[in-house]
Amino acid sequence: MDDLLRLRVRRRLAVVVVAALLAVEAEGYNITKILAEHPEYSQFNKLLTETRLAGDINRRRTITVLVVANGDMGALAAGHHTLPTLRHILEMHILVDYYGAKKLHQLSRGDTASSSMFQESGSAPGTTGYVNITQHRGGRVSFTAEDAADSATPSSFVKSVKEIPYDLAVLQISKPLSSPEAEAPVAPPAPVNLTELLSKKYCKSFAGLLAANADVFSNINATKDNGLTLFCPVDAAVDAFMPKFKNLTAKGKAAILLYHAVPDYYSLQLLKSNSGKVSTLATASVAKKDYSYDVQNDRDTVTLDTRVNTAAVTATVKDDDPLAVYAITKFLQPKELFKVAEDLAPAPAPAGPKKKTNKKKTKPATTSAAAAPSDDDSAADSPDDASADDAADKAGPAPSVLASWAIAAATAAAAALALAAWRNLLL
Ligand SMILES: *[C@@H]1O[C@H](CO)[C@@H](O)[C@H](O)[C@H]1NC(C)=O
Ligand SMILES: *[C@@H]1O[C@H](CO)[C@@H](O)[C@H](O)[C@H]1NC(C)=O
Ligand SMILES: *[C@@H]1O[C@H](CO)[C@@H](O)[C@H](O)[C@H]1NC(C)=O
Ligand SMILES: *[C@@H]1O[C@H](CO)[C@@H](O)[C@H](O)[C@H]1NC(C)=O
Ligand SMILES: *[C@@H]1O[C@H](CO)[C@@H](O)[C@H](O)[C@H]1NC(C)=O
């Protein structure tokens, strides 16, 4: 096989594997959606969203969520807890093991202690954060936080709401678990002045662009307390991109700024150990447009690949849940506004539903006045042939969507094996 052909085949395989993993991803669950089918838990569901635990639940496998009906919410509904405290309390209701109703009633020793997400969060000292599950005579099952006061009455199992065997169980309990440690007041995060934060380190020019666009600024500013990861291009990158930026329409300018903001908190640790696709604030604000990119990592380097260009994270400006700000080497260019780098465009894919989407996405967006063909600058932005090929290879075994990192490692391993097998066959 000549080199060019080999290159194409490899890329095609990478595309196939990515598509396969994305299909698996689609079967992941969405706790918000599951509970929305049961209006009697709407208050609990709303709190899972407000505390951003819904996303954490969706990313996990082998988990049990203990929910409480609206009428039983008690102090949880009274509104005297701050959001960070509520988060701790709800974390206590998320057990990091699978307890379907059947397993619950078959507990071998009659009782067991399960670790909760509160215990895993590191905020729970000692053995607090464990939940005792006890099976009583007559079959009643009760749940008690390890640190509950002796006077606290346990919460009883009411019924199973949803079970996806060995992945997710949603059980209704009679009332919220009582845990002094989880209920302890947590100081709300100190207010952050975004402009000041960005200006102080690396990203003064980008801060200026945000400040000059009031709608964009208020959107990003309003997201920062609920989970935000902002990738800010360093000053030199903004300077280099300015001619192209000025060429964009007002809508394009707003979109490309929002494109740098991901509405979820990702610690650097998480970015370094996982790869996948992220949606951005532009995804949410521009109808029917994707505006996503791939986060990849190679040892300690995190890169963002838009398929037009690739930027690397060079420094952490802030990494403190719920806000992370990372300085990046380049201004991210979305495929919705700029021409996809020839080199990274997918090879003609095998027939299948993916094909059409890919084709559509490679067309320049209609909103763009500046969808100019690749010029010198973007050519310089594109990885060269060899590294693009590397990137395509790496994209094979690892990718999964960030929203469902916890997909059984077996899936990834199987895909990697398949990829290896195909390679041996074809190359
Ligand atoms: C989960 O479902 C809710 C309600 O249907 C929806 O608003 C939300 O976007 C979904 N989340 C994800 C990650 O798909
Ligand atoms: C939980 O179980 C452990 C061990 O079975 C026991 O020592 C502890 O007292 C229990 N705590 C509560 C609050 O029931
Ligand atoms: C944030 O900081 C900038 C620059 O230091 C300042 O101009 C602005 O007034 C501050 N905003 C608030 C709300 O304090
Ligand atoms: C940004 O958000 C903070 C709250 O975190 C608020 O106090 C401030 O007024 C907001 N600034 C602007 C310009 O909207
Ligand atoms: C700006 O847009 C015009 C018209 O589409 C194009 O010819 C020109 O190359 C663009 N300039 C830059 C710097 O992208």
Automatic annotation (TrEMBL):
The chain crosses the membrane at residues 402-422. Keywords: Cell membrane, Glycoprotein, Lipoprotein, Membrane, Proteoglycan, Repeat, Signal, Transmembrane, Transmembrane helix. InterPro entries: FAS1_domain, Plant_FLA. Residues 28-165, 190-332 form the FAS1 domain. GO terms for cellular component: plasma membrane. Belongs to the fasciclin-like AGP family. This is FAS1 domain-containing protein. The lineage of its organism: Eukaryota, Viridiplantae, Streptophyta, Embryophyta, Tracheophyta.
